[in-house]
Design a protein that fits this description.
With 443 residues, this protein is mainly α. It has 18 helices and no strands. The longest helix is centred in the middle third of the chain and has 46 residues, at 267-312. The chain crosses the membrane at residues 12-34, 46-68, 101-124, 130-148, 155-178, 198-220, 232-255, 275-296, 332-349, 355-377, 389-408, 414-434.
C-alpha cells in the first residue's frame, strides 16, 4: 500500500502569518458580495439576515474548533481526505477525495467564477449572455497560471488577498458612517415563496464561509502544525465572522432592503457606483473582481493537488496521466486540466447560486464524518497537541449544525441533492474497478 502521508518530501515553510492569510484569503471571495440577496430574501428582514450571517459563522467556527483538534493530531498534507481515511478506513478516505475532485472542487470553482463573471460583464458593459464565456475564460487563464511554479501562484495569492481588503473596508466604513438606513428592522414586503426561510438563509451564508478547511491540505508544509494549524483556523474563521457581519451591516445601512431585493446579483455593482461615482465604482468593482480571482486561484491551486495525490496512489482511472507533473515547475498540469473541464461543464448546466448550495451540502456530508471523528480520537489518544474548548459541547453543536445544513438543503432542493449524491456514489464502483485492474497487472 502506498504511503498515506506523502508530505515527507515537502518543505515545512509556512508560518503563522502565511497560514492565517491563507485561511482568510481562501474564505473571503464571491460569497459575501453575491450571497447578500439570497440570505436577505430567505430571511425576510435585515435583522434576520444579520443573525443568519452570525449563525452561519458560529456553525463554521464550531466546525473549525473540532477540526483543529483532529488536524493537530494528523498534521499531514491532504486535509479532509487524510482525516477520513485515518478515522474510517481506505474506502471512506477515497470517497472523501472523490467527492472533492468530482463534485465539490469543480462546483465551487464554477460557482465563484460564475459570480465573478456577472460582475465582469457589468464592468465591461456586456450583456448577461457573456457571463458563461467570461467565467470559462477566467478559469482557463487562472488554471494556466498554475501551470507555472508554485511561487507564481503564491505571489498572486498574496497580492489579491491585500487587494480584497480594500473594497471590504470601503463598504464597511462608508455604509456604517455615511449610510442613512436602519441596519436592523427593515423587512421585504414581497419575497418569493420558494426562498425557503431562515434555514436556507443560513445555508447560503455557509458557502461564503466555506474554504477554511483547505489550509489543512497544506498540513505537511506548515511549521509546527500541531500549534499553528489550530490557531490559524480559529483566528481566521473568527476574523471572517466579524468582517462578514460588518459588511452586511454596511450594505443594509446604505441600501434599503427593497432595493437590494430588486437589484439581485447586481447589488454589488450598484453599491460601488452609488458610493464612489462612476470612476470610483469601476475601481471598487475591479478590486472585488481581483479579490474573487485570488479566491479562484487558491482553489485552482488546491483541488488539482488532491487529484494528483489520489492518482499517485493509483486510486483513479488514468492515474498515470493525472499524476503527471511538469519537469521544471512540478505542476500537476493534467490534473489541473481535469478540474477545469469539470468546472466548465458545471457552469454550462447550473447557475452559480444553485451550485454554491449543492457543493456546501456535499462537503458537509463528509464534514459530519470528520466531526464525529473527534470522539473516536478522544478514546484513542489521551494526550493531544490541541484540545477543543468546551468539549463535548462544541463538537455536538458542529454536528447539529451539519445536520441542519443537510436537512435544509434536502428539503429545499431534493432533486439537486440526489444528483450530487449519485455522482459521489459512482466513485465506489470506480474504486473497486481500478483496484481490480491493479491486482490483475500485478499477477
Amino acid at each position: 500500500m502506498a504511503d498515506k502521508h506523502p508530505n515527507n518530501n515537502l518543505k515545512r515553510s509556512i508560518g503563522f502569518g502565511s497560514a492565517i492569510s491563507i485561511v482568510i484569503g481562501t474564505i473571503i471571495g464571491s460569497g459575501i458580495f453575491f450571497k447578500q440577496v439570497s440570505v436577505l430574501d430567505s430571511a425576510g428582514s435585515s435583522t434576520m439576515a444579520i443573525i443568519a450571517w452570525i449563525f452561519g459563522g458560529l456553525i463554521t467556527l464550531t466546525g473549525g474548533l473540532t477540526i483543529a483538534e483532529i488536524g493537530a493530531q494528523m498534521p499531514y498534507t491532504g486535509g479532509l481526505y487524510v482525516y477520513i481515511e485515518n478515522l474510517y478506513g481506505r474506502i471512506c478516505g477515497f470517497m472523501a477525495g472523490w467527492m472533492q475532485i468530482i463534485v465539490y472542487g469543480p462546483a465551487i470553482i464554477a460557482s465563484v467564477a460564475g459570480f465573478m463573471s456577472i460582475l465582469m460583464a457589468n464592468f465591461f458593459g456586456l450583456g448577461r449572455n457573456w457571463s458563461i464565456p467570461l467565467a470559462i475564460v477566467t478559469v482557463i487563464a487562472i488554471g494556466l497560471l498554475n501551470f507555472l511554479e508554485n511561487k507564481v501562484g503564491a505571489v498572486f495569492s498574496v497580492i489579491t488577498t491585500i487587494v480584497k481588503m480594500i473594497p471590504i473596508a470601503a463598504i464597511v466604513i462608508c455604509g456604517i458612517f455615511w449610510g442613512h438606513q436602519d441596519a436592523l428592522g427593515q423587512t421585504i414586503s414581497q419575497v418569493n415563496q420558494s426562498t425557503g426561510g431562515f434555514g436556507v438563509a443560513v445555508l447560503a451564508t455557509l458557502f461564503a464561509y466555506d474554504g477554511w478547511i483547505l489550509i489543512a491540505n497544506l498540513g505537511g508544509e506548515i511549521k509546527n502544525p500541531q500549534k499553528l494549524l489550530p490557531k490559524a483556523i480559529i483566528l481566521g474563521i473568527s476574523s471572517v465572522l466579524v468582517i462578514y457581519t460588518l459588511v452586511t451591516i454596511g450594505i443594509f445601512r446604505f441600501l434599503p432592503v427593497g432595493l437590494i431585493h430588486r437589484l439581485g446579483e447586481n447589488t454589488t455593482a450598484y453599491l460601488a457606483t452609488k458610493v464612489f461615482g462612476t470612476i470610483g465604482g469601476k475601481l471598487l468593482s475591479a478590486g472585488i473582481i481581483i479579490s474573487m480571482m485570488g479566491t479562484l486561484n487558491g482553489k485552482m491551486l488546491t483541488f488539482p493537488r488532491i487529484v494528483y495525490a489520489m492518482a499517485r496512489r493509483g486510486d483513479l482511472p488514468f492515474s498515470k496521466y493525472l499524476s503527471y507533473v511538469t519537469p521544471k515547475g512540478k505542476s500537476p498540469v493534467v490534473a489541473t486540466l481535469f478540474i477545469i473541464v469539470l468546472a466548465a461543464i458545471m457552469m454550462m448546466f447550473f447557475k452559480p447560486d444553485h451550485l454554491s448550495d449543492l457543493c456546501v451540502f456535499t462537503v458537509y456530508c463528509f464534514y459530519l464524518l470528520a466531526f464525529f471523528g473527534i470522539f473516536i480520537l478522544r478514546k484513542k489518544n489521551k494526550t493531544r497537541p490541541f484540545s477543543t474548548p468546551l468539549y463535548p459541547l462544541v463538537p455536538i453543536v458542529a454536528i447539529l449544525g451539519g445536520l441542519f445544513v443537510l436537512i435544509s438543503e434536502l428539503i429545499n432542493d431534493p432533486a439537486g441533492v440526489l444528483l450530487f449524491i449519485g455522482i459521489v456514489i459512482v466513485g465506489l464502483p470506480i474504486f473497486y474497478v481500478v483496484k481490480r485492474m491493479d491486482r490483475k497487472r500485478l499477477k
